[in-house]
């Protein structure tokens, strides 16, 4: 019986022949490219696995165990049915790989291993004052995730300011006022971040606040401060200094200029001890080396996040200097002391 070949099969054979996979170099390059694409396709699994661990209470369960916790002990402590117990190992395996847990021997005389927290998972404990749990849950909430499904649609839609508007029909600030759960998560996350940043500034950067008799924290989430309601685009209370943490990255250049002008109006000159203190990322995509890859990628993630959820962006030093100059600030100093973010002091 004669062999029958479809036209599609013939085209596939011709394509393979054209690619000349017999050459090892080309084959390896193609397989590496395939693996790279797979990795990016499934990158969301890291985030969703971490969210699952938080919702199941895994970091707190391990923490309260006070010693390495075996898989059986963890499984028995989780609020899950017996039928799901065999799958816990898979979840923990990916979380170990991504650096949120480690395995350690139960004791010096015992070969059995158990799970322990890392520095990252300690920042996800429920009662940790600096916990990032609320921030994680807000960022991975469907309300903030769904706009990413509208990214290409937004690029083709000239009327919406961002994909969030394309998705929800209103801007983030408007929706936040209507979604109490999301608003609480976000505010708790920002408050926790303020405690973290504040503790570092007080310990390592005391000179930032030297000589100040008054300070206004614009858009503050710190409950220890006296709260004054208002609109930062309209007026900011007068003080020796204003501090803005994660504020300017939410807004476009024109909006940032409005905010900075209001800041300049209410603080004294540098000669009289005045300053604006900005805590934000300073993009630096010129860094080289594997040690910087994760830091650069995270900054670029935040840059995209600002595009999708609000109207702002992360800025490099040149872009920031231009904003300062347009407002009338003639001096600034950037100090890389807050990990991915920097401390920026601005004067006139």
Radius of gyration: 25 Å
**CATH H level, superfamily name of the domain at 205-347:** Vaccinia Virus protein VP39
What name is given to the CATH topology of the domain at 205-347?
Rossmann fold
CATH architecture of the domain at 205-347: 3-Layer(aba) Sandwich
- The total beta strand count reads 8
Number of helices: 16
Q: Please describe the biggest sheet, giving its number of strands, its sense, and whether it closes into a barrel.
A: 6 strands, mixed
Mean pLDDT: 90
Order of helices and strands: HHHHHHEEHHHHHHHEEHEHEHEE
The CATH class of the domain at 205-347 turns out to be Alpha Beta
Flag low-confidence runs.
none
Strand residues, percent: 5-15%
Helix content: 40-55%
Q: Supply the helix-strand structural class.
A: alpha/beta
Q: End-to-end span in angstroms?
A: 90 Å
Shape: globular
Family: Belongs to the class I-like SAM-binding methyltransferase superfamily. Cation-independent O-methyltransferase family. COMT subfamily.
GO biological process, one term: methylation
InterPro entries: COMT-like, COMT_C, COMT_dimerisation, SAM-dependent_MTases_sf, WH-like_DNA-bd_sf, WH_DNA-bd_sf
Keywords: Methyltransferase, S-adenosyl-L-methionine, Transferase
